[in-house]
Amino acid sequence: MLISTTKPPVGSVGLKEVNKDFCAASIGAKGVYPRRHFIPKLIEPFDDTSQWDTGVRVTKAADTTNYICSQASTLQSMKCTKQTGGTSSFSTKTVTEIDLSNTLVYVRFYVHEGSGASSWDKISVISLIVGDSTFSNYQMMKFVEGDYVTGPGWYERIIAPKMGNMDAGTYTLCWEHVTKLRVRIDSDGSDDTPAVTWDKIMFIPHLAQPQYAIALDDSFDDDYKFAAYLSAKGIRGTFFIIPSKIGTSGYLTLEQLHQIHNAGHLIANHSWSHKYLKMDNLTAAELIEEITKATDWMCANGFADGARIFALPGGTTNWEDGFNSIYKDRWFDQLRLSTTCHDVGFFDPTIQWTNSFDDTTTAELEVNKVINAGTIMVTGWHSANEGTSFTWANWKTHIDNVAAKRDAGSLDTVTMADLLSIGV
Question: What H or E segment, with its residue span, contains residue 260?
Fold first, then answer.
């Protein structure tokens, strides 16, 4: 029998009592998890281009094609096209003075493909500058630079300004008295004219306590030893299972799954048979069947508390935007953790998602980064027997480091249910 965890669940009191109704609910009933809401200090949706000045070497225009979540009745964002005559261009907006200290900066923008002088690969830097009324005090945050501009399309970035390696490096901090926002495009040459559409900027308060969640996918049989080690360290994990595989060769048995669950770990939904939305060309009806069949099995077998916490097989690269309505209107909570409208599925820009680490040094650096930034880390793992990306020994070292930081009060360890709950 696994050792029970001794650290009480964070922000999840009553979840199992709430979720007992999951089995009785049918398609069409909304999920009942109370959401953990982040409240930005400042949001710039770029819905009104007139609020931004004519700037320097830039033309700006409403973009009604490239936007994700506009808040205006007329859906749009702001396209900025650099003009000739220099290598930098920018537009500035004046805001009511606000204290943005101790915030994370989330930004979403679209890089236009262009051609010739307007080609996307002419971009050298895309940045945001915050400052006081005269920019005598300001700070520049470089969202993409050089080779990090990898092609046309959507980009998302999260920057913690108090992390030195995220900043331009030489500017006086001004976060307590911000009255100006400036979006900037730099190019390789003075005659280049690339374009960027700005869709959203949010300034989000740091979490009072950084959070760490560990997720293990696919219900491999060595998840049992993963769970035992986590339990010994007082850490609750989230195990995304494939019910059709339970009890088959190389996978957990139902008895092992119950022991993992009874030890305090969350058993969550990874679909019935792990079919890929894109690669297997699933229809909406087939996707719903994959999830509901898994949910029915989980409810029938005592895992109702995680039955509607769903991770899409193949991750976000397997996503199609046409399926947003399923996640918005149906009855389960989706953990997508990527580009999406904020009212669809589960989106939280304070979360940093990583896959398994190649080495313990990298793992330690990433955890420290989350502690310094005041954010959430979710690490995703599969089998410790894969051998190419990490080893069982490295994984235990990583968990030991996390447990030590928790014991030192530097972070809390949580499950995916906690991240969907009020109080985290």
Answer: helix 254-262
Q: Domains in the chain, ordered, with CATH?
A: 15-36+208-419 (3.20.20.370), 42-205 (2.60.120.260)
Element (H, E) at 68: none
Query: Quick one: average pLDDT of 257-262?
Result: 96
Give the span between the Cα atoms of 385 and 291, in whole angstroms.
Answer: 27
DSSP class of 86: S
Most confident of 251-255, 345-349, 357-361, 415-419: 251-255
The CA distance from 233 to 254, in Å, is 24
Separation of alpha carbons 381 and 355, rounded Å: 6
245: left (phi over 0), alpha (psi -120 to 50) or beta: alpha
How many Cβ atoms sit within 10 Å of the Cβ of residue 264?
22
Q: Are 412 and 10 in contact (CB under 8 A)?
A: yes
pTM: 0.70
Q: Rounded to a whole number, what is the largest CA-CA distance in the chain? A: 72
Distances (CA, A) of 207 to 105, 162, 178, 367, 410: 13, 14, 21, 15, 12
- Residues 242 and 311: their CA atoms lie apart, in Å, by 11
Residue 260: per-residue pLDDT: 95
Judge contact between 287 and 278, C-beta under 8 A. Answer: no
- Tens of pLDDT, residues 140-151: 888 888 777 888
Side chain identity, residue 100: L
Phi, psi of 62 (to 5 degrees): -65, 135
Between CA 287 and CA 275 the distance in angstroms is 8
For residue 151, the 8-state DSSP code is S
193-206: burial string, b at 16+ Cβ within 10 Å, e else = bbbbbbbbbbbbbb
Q: Rounded to an integer, what distance in angstroms lies between the CA atom of residue 366 and that of residue 378?
A: 11
349-360 in b/e burial notation, b at 16+ Cβ within 10 A?
bbbbbeebbeeb
Beta strands at 351-354 and 376-381: parallel, antiparallel or unpaired: parallel
Q: Are 352 and 377 in contact (CB under 8 A)?
A: yes
At 140, give phi and psi (nearest 5°): -110, 130
